[in-house]
Design the sequence.
């Protein structure tokens, strides 16, 4: 938020969070010379589920992650990923390649021990295993190996049968979304980042199943997917539930759906319409905007993160140091509706004067 204030010449404040088992919520207030916005922010929580996965023995996490990668290959996902170039394929194989590199280094050390002196084969083997474990636990963690393994393991498990705790929470949020129709909000914005975009689709599908006319009355409802993993999961042959959820969402004429995608983020699919790529026939498609992460940050900030692909991925939900077509905090805290920002070629970047004043041309797009 400090970055948001400096970048957009705005005033902004966030309250202390109220944390529950399924969500954390707080309020923000932001303003400029001629605009003011109050936002009720609800963060859908599933960090406890990720923490449970991370608490498993490392050997099990490696096994589940590698098995999941194998199952995605057998389910046809890899061949569909190949259509989008080497970047996503490299991300797909990243944990397996890193483990193979660690195993190769460990085997080399074991071989050196075996030929360097009067050591038994068991000593060489123990040395190799020790090196492998050190590599997995130390540089492996810094290189996000553990996170990548858990990511694929969770994706495989979820697309097959959901998750009882997550499903209950998604039902609860869907009910909250339906009840919010009777409020005085100007806009209800659902933002899904990465795998969160997949969960958001399932949540919206639940709400639309109960109320097919969702969004027709009351506040405008917009769904914005950023750095989305919808195609990551959707390209799996077993992702029937997700594809059915997309069909229902794409059939709604009252919920606006937009996507932001970036070439520099290897964990999303650049220049893709997920509805079209999955071969689905729906009345509406998401409005897709491509953005440049480099344009969001000053040179020094970009240099710090450009080689860290997880941090590049997280820029979609981080503060910008430059005004750009996409800005997470402008979507959440700014006066312009999400649909207006997506429909504008330059997003919010062209809507404000240097001092943070909203220009007259964009007054009609303000919430």
Sequence:
């Amino acid at each position: 938020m400090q970055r948001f204030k400096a970048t957009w010449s705005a005033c902004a404040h966030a309250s202390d969070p109220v944390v529950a088992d399924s969500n954390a919520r707080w309020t923000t207030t932001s303003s400029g010379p001629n605009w003011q916005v109050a936002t009720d922010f609800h963060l859908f929580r599933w960090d406890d589920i990720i923490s449970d996965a991370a608490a498993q023995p490392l050997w099990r996490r490696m096994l589940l992650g590698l098995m999941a990668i194998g199952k995605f290959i057998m389910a046809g996902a890899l061949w569909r990923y190949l259509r989008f170039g080497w970047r996503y394929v490299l991300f797909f194989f990243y944990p397996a390649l890193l483990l193979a590199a660690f195993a190769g280094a460990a085997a080399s050390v074991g071989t050196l021990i075996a030929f360097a002196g009067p050591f038994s084969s068991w000593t060489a083997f123990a040395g190799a295993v020790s090196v492998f474990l050190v590599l997995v636990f130390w540089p492996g963690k810094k290189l996000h190996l553990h996170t990548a393994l858990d990511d694929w393991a969770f994706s495989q498990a979820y697309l097959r049968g959901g998750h009882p705790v997550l499903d209950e929470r998604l039902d609860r949020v869907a009910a909250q979304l339906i009840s919010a129709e009777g409020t005085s909000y100007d806009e209800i914005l659902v933002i899904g980042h990465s795998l969160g975009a997949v969960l958001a689709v399932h949540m919206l599908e639940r709400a639309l199943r109960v109320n097919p006319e969702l969004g027709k009355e009351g506040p405008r409802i917009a769904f914005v997917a950023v750095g989305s993993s919808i195609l990551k999961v959707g390209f799996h042959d077993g992702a029937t539930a997700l594809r059915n959820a997309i069909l229902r969402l794409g059939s709604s004429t009252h919920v606006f759906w937009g996507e932001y995608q970036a070439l520099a983020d290897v964990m999303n699919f650049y220049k893709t319409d997920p509805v079209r790529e999955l071969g689905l026939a729906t009345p509406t498609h998401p409005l897709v905007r491509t953005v440049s992460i480099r344009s969001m940050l000053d040179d020094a900030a970009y240099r710090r993160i450009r080689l860290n692909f997880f941090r590049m991925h997280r820029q979609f939900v981080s503060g910008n140091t430059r005004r750009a077509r996409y800005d997470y905090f402008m979507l959440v805290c700014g006066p312009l509706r999400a649909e207006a920002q997506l429909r504008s070629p330059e997003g919010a970047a062209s809507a404000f004067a240097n001092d943070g004043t909203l220009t007259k041309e964009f007054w009609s797009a303000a919430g």
Observations:
- Residues 49-151 form one domain.
